Recover the amino acids of this structure.
């Protein structure tokens, strides 16, 4: 039986070998002919006259045509891929926080009353308040722990913690972006702000802080015109006014003058290989924030605000990276007072700013002043402003990939008046320090401490804030 199995196996092997030889026999037979054809079509070396054989040139030309065809197909495929991307995109965040007021029930001011008034020169006003009403900020919106109970001053106290430590859902932000055409972009930003209601009414409110059309005037995208409710052009702090853009939590003491949205038209351009930055706008309102005294989105007079900024952005070589830049800017705005029904009184703001930008290290600051005459009749609600030089200097340092620290030194020196009814005397300086931790690309935890102090004849009182924020963004 073993011999029979061996015989069968040898027979199968032999048959397989014969079949293989039969399959390749035509190629063996054609070998000499193929070799001869190859020799006859192979390119020859240049002759003594330096001329190449034609068949070789034809082959190179065919390869070049083939490469051009492949490149065209790749380009067409890339264009189809881009067209398949949705023109609508969404960004946004949820900002959840916890804060602790430390002194004065979270209120940033005190009344100047009694026989021993600190500022008797303002006794002609019905009420005199000392401090800074927005100094006890607890979030990026600039909302304070408590606005206090000023006499005859009805106001919307959105947080109203009465000095208690509290969790807070600061804001839910949605930012849609739609590509209307190759050069036209629609943007919007809507904030949903959950707050405490009363008397069976909800306290929640919606804040539409951006709604604009951007049209790219140049193909390189460096010159654009904006129409609608747009970001201001004054200074630099408006660039990181949202929780997912700001390195820290709270805005500076002068952010109330420079980060408010404006309704109108603006143009922005980068020139000379991005060395020169120019921006200008014509708007209804100033760049003050909506919760402050001077904001009015819809104009009540025919005088518009003229706004502008010019900056020089200089490459400064390698400190941390070769593309570090130093930017120096000057800003200004001038126009009819917001809330005024006539154009007689003019408001103006002027300022300087600087920022050193590196991949993990930023130094930025601003200095400004301004005036607004107000109106003698308090019933008109037109506030006066005498803002002396005020500003801030901030350092943001990303020490590690997931951990960063920051500090800010700032001051505000201002008189804010409403007719002869009330005056706010502010001589405030503040030190803000904190850290942030990048948990993942969509989650950041921040914590900071704000130490407020008074100077220039105002007796110091306790009005510090410790606050934190968990920002979840997409």
């Amino acid at each position: 039986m073993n011999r029979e199995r061996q015989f069968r196996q040898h027979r199968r092997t032999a048959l397989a070998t014969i079949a293989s030889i039969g399959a390749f026999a035509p190629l063996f037979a054609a070998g000499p002919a193929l070799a001869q054809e190859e020799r006859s079509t192979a390119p020859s070396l240049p002759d003594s006259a330096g001329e190449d054989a034609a068949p070789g040139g034809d082959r190179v030309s065919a390869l070049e045509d083939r490469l051009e065809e492949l490149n065209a197909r790749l380009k067409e495929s890339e264009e189809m891929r881009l067209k398949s991307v949705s023109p609508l995109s969404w960004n946004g965040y949820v900002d959840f926080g916890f804060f602790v007021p430390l002194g004065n029930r979270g209120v940033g001011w005190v009344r100047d009353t009694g026989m021993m008034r600190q500022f008797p020169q303002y006794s002609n006003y019905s009420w005199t308040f000392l401090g800074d009403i927005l100094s006890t900020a607890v979030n990026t919106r600039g909302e304070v722990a408590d606005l206090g109970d000023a006499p005859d001053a009805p106001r919307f106290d959105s947080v109203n913690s009465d000095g208690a430590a509290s969790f807070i859902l600061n804001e839910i932000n949605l930012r849609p972006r739609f590509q209307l055409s190759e050069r036209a972009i629609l943007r919007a930003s809507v904030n949903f702000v959950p707050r405490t209601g009363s008397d069976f009414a909800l306290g929640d409110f919606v804040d539409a802080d951006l709604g604009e059309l951007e049209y790219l005037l140049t193909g390189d995208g460096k010159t654009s015109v904006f129409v609608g409710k747009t970001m201001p052009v004054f200074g630099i702090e408006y660039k990181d006014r949202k929780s997912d853009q700001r390195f820290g939590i709270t805005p500076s003491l002068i952010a109330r003058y420079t980060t408010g949205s404006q309704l109108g038209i603006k143009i922005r351009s980068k020139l000379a290989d991005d060395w020169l930055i120019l921006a200008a706008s014509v708007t209804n309102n100033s760049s003050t924030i909506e919760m402050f005294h001077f904001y009015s989105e819809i104009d009540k007079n025919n005088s518009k605000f003229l706004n502008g900024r010019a900056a020089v952005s200089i490459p400064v070589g390698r400190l941390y990276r070769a593309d570090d830049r130093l930017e120096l800017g000057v800003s200004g705005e001038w126009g009819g007072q917001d809330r005024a029904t006539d154009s007689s009184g003019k408001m103006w703001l002027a300022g300087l700013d600087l920022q050193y930008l590196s991949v993990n290290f930023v130094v930025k600051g601003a200095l400004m002043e301004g005036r607004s005459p107000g109106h003698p009749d308090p019933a008109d609600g037109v506030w006066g402003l005498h803002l002396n030089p005020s500003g801030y200097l901030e350092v943001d340092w990303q020490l590690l990939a997931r951990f960063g620290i920051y500090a800010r030194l700032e001051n505000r020196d201002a008189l804010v008046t409403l007719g002869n009814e009330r005056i706010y005397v502010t001589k405030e300086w503040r030190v803000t320090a904190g850290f942030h931790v990048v948990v993942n690309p969509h989650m950041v935890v921040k914590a900071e401490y704000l130490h407020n102090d008074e100077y220039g004849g105002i007796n110091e009182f306790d009005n510090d804030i410790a606050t934190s924020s968990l920002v979840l963004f997409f």
